[in-house]
Amino acid sequence: MEDMRLGAVESKFADIIWECEPVPSGELVKICEKELSWKKPTTYTVLRKLSERGIFKNENGIVSSLISREDFYAIQSEKFVEETFDGSLPLFLAAFTKRKSLSKAEIRELRDMIDSFGEE
């Protein structure tokens, strides 16, 4: 997969597809006109660009994803930690918690997650 980053508007467009898929391309045009104030050519141009990046496909007039929203954001998170913290999750968490305290529930959830990885 090529560049998986999305700009703010591309992200809104991607969310529309993930929420509505599979969606006929004509229906997607109508949704984008209403939600994003886009004309038909804009919808198809952005769809083509995101399809070229391997995120979506338009097959026989039906638009669907090649990668789920969850997988997409997991890839984004991995890249961010890799590029910013040399791939160190502990360094990321240290930086994250420096300005934002974790709630007891979040700490418990993280502990449970770490414990479950140890069991595998």
Summary tags:
three-stranded antiparallel sheet, Arc Repressor Mutant, subunit A, mainly alpha, 2 domains, 120 residues, 68% helix
Task: Explain what this protein looks like in three dimensions.
By secondary structure, the chain is mainly alpha-helical. The protein has 2 domains: 8-69, Winged helix-like DNA-binding domain superfamily/Winged helix DNA-binding domain (Arc Repressor Mutant, subunit A, Orthogonal Bundle); 88-120, no CATH class. The chain is built from 6 helices and 3 strands. The protein has helices at residues 8-20, 25-36, 40-52, 69-85, 89-99, 104-119; strands at 23-24, 56-59, 62-65. A 3-stranded antiparallel β-sheet has the order 1-3-2. The protein is elongated and about 45 Å long.
In brief, what are we looking at here?
With 120 residues, this protein is mainly alpha-helical. 68% of the residues lie in helices and 8% in strands.
Main sheet attributes: strand count, strand direction, barrel closure: 3 strands, antiparallel
**Strand residues, percent:** 5-15%
User: What would CATH call the architecture of the largest domain?
Assistant: Orthogonal Bundle
What is the average of the pLDDT values? 92
Under CATH, the topology of the largest domain can be stated as: Arc Repressor Mutant, subunit A
**Helix content range of the residues, please?**
55-70%
